[in-house]
Amino acid sequence: MMHTGHSTLRQTTESTPLSATNLLTRSPLFSRTPNLRDGDEASLRLALRHYFLDTFTTYESLFECLANDQAFYTKPITLRHPLIFYYGHTATFFVNKLLLARMINRRINQRFESLFAVGVDEMSWDDLNDANYQWPTPAEVKAYRDQVRNLVLDLIDKAPLHLPVDWHNPWWTVIMGIEHERIHLETSSVLIRQHKLEFVKSSPGWQPNRITGAAPNNVLVNVSAGQVCLAKDKTDPYYGWDNEYGLHEAVVAAFDAAKYLVSNQEFLQFVEAGGYLNAYHWEEEGKGWLAYSRAQHPTFWVKKNHGWYLRLMTEEVSMPWDWPVEVNYHEAKAFCNWKKSATGLPVRLPTEDEWYRLYESAGLQDPNDQQSQANIHLDHGASSCPVNHFAHGEFFDVVGNAWQWTETPIYPFDGFEVHAIYDDFTTPTFDGRHNLIKGGSWISCGNESLHTSRYAFRRHFFQHAGFRYVVSGEIKPVPSSHYETDKLMSEYAEFHYGDEYFGVPNFSKSLVDLALNALIDKPKRRALDLGCASGRATFELAQYFEQVTGVDFSARFIGQGVQLANGESLRYTLADEGELVSYKSRSLADLGLVDVKDKVEFFQGDACNLKPVFSGYDFILAANLIDRLYNPAKFLGSIHERINTGGILMLASPYTWLTDHTPREDWLGGFKKDGESFTTLDGLHAHLGQHFRLISGPCEVPFIIRETKRKFQHTLSEVTVWEKL
Predict the structure, then answer these.
(1) Is residue 393 within 8 Å of residue 363, measured between CB atoms?
(2) Which string of DSSP letters, residue by residue, matches 404-456?
(3) Which of 310, 351, 612, 720 is placed for a possible disulfide with 697 were both Cys, Cβ 3.0 to 4.6 Å?
(4) Omega within 30 of 0 (cis) for the link into 28
């Protein structure tokens, strides 16, 4: 039976509890994400079998909310695929990822596994996708899903299983497929909710909560200052997506937070105050969305002649004013700005760190095998419920009911790595335009329900998401999430801070280790790393000198050193093959150099025309510099002015003289002079002999520069060490 009208919700007072009989209950409960380190092989196979079947079956049952075949092919919103895509997508995901993990060696349906492979990233609210697809019938997709179901069950029952199942285990891909389908259980429910009523119908397994009453007055509750420490590693017993791993620590100042999520009643004040008609309280990006969408109220609100209604998944109901309002980030932010203007208080959305302080203050735990004391994991019905039902400490709905928008754009933690089987799960969102949502909604399940989960959406995106506001001062900027993609910059980042290849030690560190032999019994007050590039040698020298200056002609190069010195991670991509890349992240902590960051400084400068301030050094390093200068003789002729008597100058260069960098007439060597070979070392003696004496070298120090996964430059740099007379 197709529902096109509306339903009413049963009224209750604020003190009336919700009982299990009031709401949709599942017996047994919808299965939780399994502990992958609990039990033996047989018990884990059994747990994964149940987890997979429960997920696969529940996902298919969601599509029983569609009224007819046309509902599969009509887009609920123009920016997403029709629902037939999502019906097939989660099944093809299993096959495509299992192939990558080498757990299977052949496809089931080549066409489907291409057609249903890639979804739409909603880049902007006006980024329409008008691609023409030849979609199969729902019956054909169901038959395909049955094949995938049998394939995965056969793997779970029979494939070799070695414990523990962790990030590096091919079985990780099986859990990845299940958790991926649970994500789409939620996102598909949002699309069904955005469908026209003629395309949806009531389903016994997806009945909403029917309780409503008077909305509570929101009040502020103080949250004391505290620390946040997130340190999920690969020994964690529960599945996680790549962005959850790594280390993040922060000190969070005390703040006040709203006791309840913002209810429909509380948000009505903003609507009635003309909040959608006046762009004054909207951020610039929000103004663009508002102008495009022409929204006048939240997207799930329906205005009729006889009052307000709320669109649920398959029906419209009289407005439950005590339920959480569901809006996108722009609307939540505009409400906060309006409230800030009205009250004079610094009202805003919480940060991710502040949400973790709320979670800790509430003393919460992730869902277990008992019915949750929160509207989450489908434990209490297929919709939101009153904002004053689930108490969590002094607050309500710290988790569950509706996701909560934060001010924090998603960023990678220190030590972040992508998973090779799903290398683009998170990295496309590290763009400053995807904000984190926390806490989960009534349908958030599996990994989504864990407090460590980190999901982010574009700010105009609609989810079962609302918000809680806080009163606090300015927000600390989050660490940079930018990944350097310029090939040269990325290669130098890896050259300075990345992995060793073919047993060749890090070049910068090797030079500093070599210099220490010449610095025995020498003063170690100030050092200059000239032509420092990305700055690794600058940091290495700071372990032995009181102050080290890094100077390079390229502001982009020294920007990498500055970024590290500021305590941020250096993030970059490396070419693997063709358009495929690897994602890398390095911090000073990774290299054991965090204690020296306050002893370094970086400047842009021309080695051939240094400012007078760059003088008085006990040691100067010029690594792979002289054959890149436009006038190396000018540099060598004045370098003695920069160094103290008895000080040490170290030069390293492969002597790759190119007219692109140095005019032929200005080369120091590498040519015939008076009929004889004249080397660069001869030129160094000629230019430095008046003020320096050679005390060590020449010797050769190798270095490797990675170009692609299978192409490397192997070079020898000749090193000479000179003492200032």
Answers:
(1) yes
(2) EEEEEE--PPBT---BTTBTTSSGGGTTTTEEEEES--TT--GGGGSTT--EE
(3) 720
(4) yes
H/E stretch holding 348 reads strand 347-348
**670: how many CB neighbours lie within 10 A of its CB?**
16
Burial class (CB in 10 A: 0-12, 13-18, 19+), 675: exposed
47, 51, 114, 176 from 98: Cα distances, Å: 19, 17, 15, 10
Rounded Cα–Cα distance for residues 209 and 598 (Å): 57
Residue 56, amino acid: F
The radius of gyration computed from the CA coordinates of the chain, to the nearest angstrom, equals: 31
* Angle at the Cα of 136 from the Cα atoms of 130 and 139, rounded to 5 degrees: 140
Given a contact cutoff of 8 angstroms between Cβ atoms, the answer to whether 605 and 596 are in contact is no
pLDDT of 2 over the 50 cut: no
Q: How confident is the model at residue 645 (pLDDT cuts 50, 70, 90)?
A: very high
Per the DSSP assignment, residues forming a β-bridge with 484 are 572
C-alpha 215: how far from chain center: 36
| DSSP at 116 | T
From the list 512, 517, 516, 557, the residue with the least C-alpha distance to 537 is 512
Residues 6+ apart with CB under 8 A from 617: 526, 527, 528, 549, 642, 643, 644, 647
CA separation for the pair 380, 374 (Å, rounded): 8
- What is the phi/psi pair of residue 345, to 5°? -95, 150
Question: Cα(397)–Cα(403) distance, rounded to whole angstroms?
Answer: 9
Q: What is the DSSP-derived secondary structure letter of residue 641?
A: G
C-alpha to C-alpha distance for 695 and 674, rounded to whole angstroms: 28
Give residue-wise pLDDT tens across range 259-311. Answer: 999 999 999 999 999 999 999 999 999 999 999 999 999 999 999 999 999 99
Regarding pTM above 0.90, the answer is no
Token digits for 316?
């419209």
Alpha-carbon gap, residue 306 to 326, rounded angstroms: 22
Query: Crossing angle, helix 83-100 and helix 138-158, to 10 degrees?
Result: 30
Rounded distance, CA 653 to CA 607, Å? 15
Tokens (6 digits) for 400: 């569950």
User: CA-CA distance, 4 to 208, in Å (whole number)?
Assistant: 16
Whose tokens are 């895509």? That residue is 85
Ramachandran assignment for 400, one of left (phi > 0), alpha (psi -120 to 50 degrees), beta (any other) = left
**pLDDT of 25 over the 60 cut:** no
Distance CA 220, CA 469 (A): 9
What would the mean pLDDT of 320-329 be, rounded to a whole number?
A: 98
**pLDDT, tens digit (0-9, with 9 covering 90-100), for 112-159:** 999 998 765 555 545 545 556 789 999 999 999 999 999 999 999 999
Whole-Å CA distances, 610 to 282, 307, 605, 629: 49, 74, 6, 13
Of 514, 297, 258, the C-alpha closest to 388 is 258
Q: Which residues contact 208 (CB under 8 A, 6 or more apart)?
A: 24, 312, 313, 315, 317, 381, 382, 383
CA distance 580 to 420: 11
| Token reading at 102 | 């080498």
Do the bridges between strand 255-258 and strand 470-471 make them parallel or antiparallel, or are there none, so unpaired? antiparallel
Q: Which amino acid is at 533?
A: A
First to last CA, the chain: 97
